Amino acid sequence: MTMTMTRRLALSAGFCAALTGFALAQTTTAPPPATSAPAVAGDRFITVSSTTSTQDSGLFGHILPLFKARTGIDVRVVSQGTGQALDTGRRGDADVVFVHARAQEVKFVEDGFGLERKPVMYNDFVLIGPKSDPAGVAGTKDIAAALVKIQEKGAPFVSRGDKSGTHAAELDLWKVANVDLAAKKGAWYREIGQGMGAALNSAGAMGAYVLADRGTWISFKNRGDLTIAVEGDRRLFNQYGVIAVNPARHPHVKINDGQAFVNWLTGPEGQKAIADYRIDGQQLFFANAAQAGA
C-alpha cells in the first residue's frame, strides 16, 4: 500500500470517528421531543354569558382582571342580549349567566337551569333622542307620556328587537304607555335585532329615539346629535342578576369555579369593584347584592 493511500485511509477513519462522536453528542444533549404540557392554573377558565351592556360599558374590562388576580380563574364572556344569554345557559354552553331581566331570570331558575338568582347591581334606562327633539319630550321625566308622543307624531324610534333585557324593558314600557305596538307600529318603529351599541349608532344615523341603559350611554363615544331626552322615572330602574348554571342539568359545567365567580361578584370585593368603576367621574353601576328582593 502506498503512503498516499495510507494517509487517505487514516483521514477517512478520523473523519468517520469525529462524525460518530458528533452524532453521539447530539443524541445525548438534544432536548426530548415536545409533549403536551400539563394543565396549569392559567388554563382555568369559565364561560359567562352576559348582556351587551356589561360588555359595551367596559365593566368587564374593569372587574375581570381583579377576579383573575384573586382566584387565577379566567373569564370568557359571551356577549348577547339577555334572552340569548339565558338560552346559552339553558344549552349548557355557559357556566354562569349575568343578565338583567328579573322575570326571565326567575323562570330560568324555576325551570331547573340555574341554581339561585342573586342580585348584583343596578343602574337605569334613559330615553335617548336627537337634539332636535321631533316628539317634544326632551327634559321630561314621564317615560310613558314620552312614548305616547313619539308614537302619535310618528317620530323615528329604534328598537333593539333582539330579546335582550333592554328590549324586554322597552316592550314593557310601551304596555305601560297603553300603546299597542302590533296595531300602531309602522315605518317610524325600526327593529334592528342588534346590541346596544349598534342601536345607538342606528339612532344617531336616523335621528331617532332609542331606549338605552345608562352604563352603555356613558361609555358610548359616537354620540353625534344624540342626547338624553327622558330620565329619572322610577319605571326606568334596571336591575342585574347572576346565576350559576345547574350541574344537575348539565354535569359538564364548571360549578366550583362558576360559583366562585358568583360569590366574588356578590361579595365585598366584587361589589367594591363594581362601585369603583367610573367613566369621566360618573359611576355606571351601583352594587346592591345585599338588597333583599332586588
Could you please describe the fold and organization of this structure?
The chain has about 290 residues and is an alpha/beta fold. Helices cover about 45% and strands about 20% of the residues. The strands form two sheets. Strands 1, 2, 3, 4, 5, 6, 7, 8, 9 and 12 form a ten-stranded mixed beta sheet that branches.
Gist of the model:
The protein has 12 helices and 12 strands.
What is the total number of structural domains? 2
What Rg, in angstroms, do the CA atoms define? 30 Å
- Helix-strand sequence: HEHHEHEHEHEHHEHEHEEHHEEE
Determine the strand fraction and express it as a percent band. 15-25%
Q: Which stretches are poorly predicted, pLDDT < 50 over at least 5 residues?
A: 1-41
What is the CATH-assigned architecture of the largest domain? 3-Layer(aba) Sandwich
**How widely separated are the two ends?**
104 Å
User: What name does CATH use for the topology of the largest domain?
Assistant: D-Maltodextrin-Binding Protein, domain 2
Topology at a glance:
Blueprint: H1 3-29, E1 45-51, H2 52-56, H3 59-71, E2 74-80, H4 82-90, E3 96-99, H5 102-110, E4 114-130, H6 143-153, E5 157-159, H7 165-176, H8 181-184, E6 189-191, H9 196-206, E7 209-213, H10 214-219, E8 226-230, E9 237-245, H11 255-266, H12 268-276, E10 278-279, E11 282-283, E12 286-287
Parallel strand pairs: 1-2, 1-3, 5-6, 5-7
Antiparallel strand pairs: 3-9, 4-7, 4-8, 4-9, 4-12, 10-11
List keywords for this structure.
294 residues; alpha/beta; D-Maltodextrin-Binding Protein, domain 2; 2 domains; two-stranded antiparallel ribbon; globular; disordered N terminus
